[in-house]
Design brief:
By secondary structure, the chain is mainly alpha-helical. Helix content is 59%, strand content 0%. Helix 3 crosses helix 5 and helix 4 crosses helix 5.
Amino acid sequence: MCYRRAEDVLPEYVLHLVQKYVDGELVYIPRKGQKRSWGSDTGARESLKTRNTKIYLKYQQGITVDQIAEEFCLSKKSVQRIIRNCRE
């Protein structure tokens, strides 16, 4: 997502209308059309799914939550949540 100056892309009357509601503030304008799910373009969703599966398998092999948290640079609570979600 890039930053664009409103003066450069909006007609003056639209700019004045927007300023009436959010003068000088940042505003996110969503894309029109279909929404894409998070991580669908970057592969982040698949990467996290793979990581979480590895975490769950290590847990099943008897590796402690503390060891897993250290290996994956996560908090113990995060590891516990991942394990709980994988069980379901």
